[in-house]
Design brief:
The chain is an alpha/beta fold and 178 residues long. It has 3 helices and 9 strands; from the N terminus they run E-H-E-H-E-E-E-H-E-E-E-E. Helix 2 (45-55) links the parallel strand 2 and strand 3. 1-O-pyrophosphono-5-O-phosphono-alpha-D-ribofuranose (PRP) binds next to strand 2, strand 5 and helix 3.
Amino acid sequence: MDHRLGRVLISQAEITERVRELGSAVAQDYAGCEPLVVGVLKGAVVFLADLIRAAEIPVTVDFIGVSSYGTSSRSSGVVKITSDLSVSIEDRHVLLVEDIIDTGRTINYLRRNLQTRHPRSLKLCALLDKAERRAEEVAIDYLGFSIPNHFVVGYGLDFGGLYRNLGYIAVLETEPSA
Ligand code: PRP
């Protein structure tokens, strides 16, 4: 199959505006709390970088790496931590940041795992929600955009490791090789 960038689903301007709104909401809700913002590697890196600057409150940042067993990383349902947090989250207000919630398995696994470490609070901020693909119910506290069931890349999301550095979200189109 050949792949090529298709239409822009969410423009850079739309992302900027929505991230500004999410940052304001986070700033309001976490004022005086000095939350620990935890990005899920690697897709959340771009969104997290913009979100924390839009929030304009004191935060600390950490990252957690996960991967799924099985052939499809987005559907196997068995998740393992490949790179753990570098700090304790006990008694901390933790805000998990994801680029996309698809089946919901990754984030639910992470939530269950982090809850065992006794954070003071644990919330989720996701840029994209592909609800059609959901296999498990997920509570998203801060959401950027709901999107239809297309394979999307850009603004952190990749295909084969590429496209993460696009400033917008685009549909990746596949077509049979000639
Ligand atoms: C993506 C995304 C989520 C997960 C969502 O990560 O960043 O972590 O898949 O899928 P789910 O809701 O079906 O569990 P991916 O495995 O593509 O890794 P990446 O962030 O390094 O690109």
